[in-house]
Amino acid sequence: MASTPYIPWSHHVSRSYLENKVKEQPRNGRLHKTLAPLKEEIRDGKAALRHYRAATELSSGDADAANDFGLALFKIGRWDEAVKEMKRGLRIQPYHILLHKNLAAVYARRGRYREALDHAKEAVRIAPWDPQAHRSLAKILDATGNTRDSLSHNRQAVLTGPGMQAAREHHDAQAYRRVAIQTVARGQTQRGHASAYYDAHRALAGKKFDMPTTEITKQLLFKTRTTPELT
Length: 231
Prior knowledge:
InterPro entries: CellSynth/LPSAsmb/PSIAsmb (IPR051012), TPR-like_helical_dom_sf (IPR011990), TPR_rpt (IPR019734). This protein is an all-alpha fold.
């Protein structure tokens, strides 16, 4: 049985306020879009989906609403509808980076790597400074066996990081980890300084280590080559 999520009082106040505003202004798409994720947080999936749908219908030119509705559909397994909605969002705003990143993730989850690569590459083209875009492309390239280009984009993610928030720092740590592992796998340990990359991963992840080139790091690097990647 799933545990009931803790919901802060401020969340209840915000949700109650928005529910009243929606009753007053039922044709306001922005209000529906704002209320929908609050419904998701209390695990009222049906209500959330209803508000996401209303937001897209009432704000037909809002690519953000299409992105949010598409993600909500994907979370409940309605994959075809999710893709259709996200593609509709791209027709509104072709350079919407979140839509490209999310479509890449959706296609990759379904094993459709050609489409996933197209959208992941477009996300990097639109925002070459975005470490998440490089990380996503690197993952998909790695899944298709292109470790050389995957390593290149993981390195680019490292160069554009670390992120400012804790969640992004976790991803930055994983990018360092992937660079270290892929460097070893490609036999580039001298040129790529795999140990230094792995120590950077451990530092960002808050893990204790002694010196940048200790035997502990080398042992960990060797171990990770046969260990499934943690996400």
